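Entry 12.
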Amino acid sequence: MDSGSPRRGPIAELKAFGHAALINPVPRDHSEPDSAFRRRRIVAGITLVLGAAVLAFSLRLQPGDPRFYVSTVILAVVWGGGAFASGRLHLGHAHTREGGTDRPYVQAFILGFALLGLFLLGAFVVAKVPALRGPVDGLLDHARFGSLPFVIAITAINGIAEELYFRGALYAAVGRKHAVAITTIAYTLATFATGNPMLAFAAALLGLLVGLQRRVTGGILGPIITHLVWSLGMLLLLPPLFNLL
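Predicted 3D structure (tokens):
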């Protein structure tokens, strides 16, 4: 994008941002030997099974149960440990308006707040439908009845660890052709193991967005930022919003 180009209208700016953030990949070469790729696949597969099991156990615990904190810390260790054990992880780069590349800070924050806004708007519908509100309330009870600062820390740590694994290790392990679809489905199924359909639905939307980010930027930094903005925003804003509705 040339800084000297004519000023565009809002719709054109939005389209340009969408193409730069979610469609047009930044050039890079992350090729690796076949032996490293096979190791990635083995480690990623083992990590996925272990992580899904720990996640299912932790979110089936009653709110306030001290085992919830222990199990979620273990979950972060599983996701993060598996990611680093699988091989090299890349931070990634984003397109700039000047036509170059830089770390994807701005794009990631914008996408994170956009997704957060979409979910908060959706909360107005979810709050009015008992079948939908029940699973969300059950999830938020961990924040309501537990230690909020600790839940915030756990949410942040697990958000980072999930992106290290799903958009880092697993994305690199499944090959380039259908990596966005495969990692999104895997993330959704792993979350569905918790027995909470609303959480699985949220994981599908989040997974698709950060998967597209990963495809464009070639790294985990953008997905991590977007995930943290969304998850921490939901944790802090959704309970008081539900209380008003």
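Annotation: Residues 172 and 241 are 38 Å apart (CA to CA). Strands lie at 94-95, 101-102.
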